[in-house]
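Intended use. Records like the one below are meant for learning the mapping from a protein sequence to its folded structure. Do not use them to infer anything beyond what is encoded.
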Amino acid sequence: MRVIGGEFRSRRLKPVAGYGVRPTPDRLRETLFDILAPRIEGATFVDAYAGTGAVGIEAVSRGAAKAILMEKSRDALKVLEENVASLGIEGRVKVLRGPARLLLPRWEGDIVFLDPPYGEQAEYEAVMRILGEMGRGLVVAQHHSKHVLAEEYGKLRRVRMVKQGDNVLSFYDQVTGS
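Structure written out for the chain above:
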């Protein structure tokens, strides 16, 4: 696993051993950040299920001012912190331990990325409802193609979907007007 682009391009990241973490594939991460390019510079990026930290680190590498990485797995947190330290970006990245549904209401981000374990469909719904109530920023949910997310969650409406293999990126933005 490596950083795809930006300041830390081609730098290797340590993976988490075992089956509990499913890293976002490099090609999908590249597609995600090609789409986010106009919004990433200077943004606060929240990765609510950070795993190794690859997506949040990619955001910082591509110009995000700050990344907030949330992870509840002790094993993944250890690797995530090692990856952040190996790049010397501790001042630009905040690592939080705990479940996303408890941490998200306390942290604001311009862009929120969600990639809970695919088997935990209830987690998607709970977190999307929380973010829909908050109605702040852009939310990107990575999910399996067989898992259908709603078109709207509170103040958030899906504005784009990108499918690559079994992976889908669903982009939600704030409903404006009325």
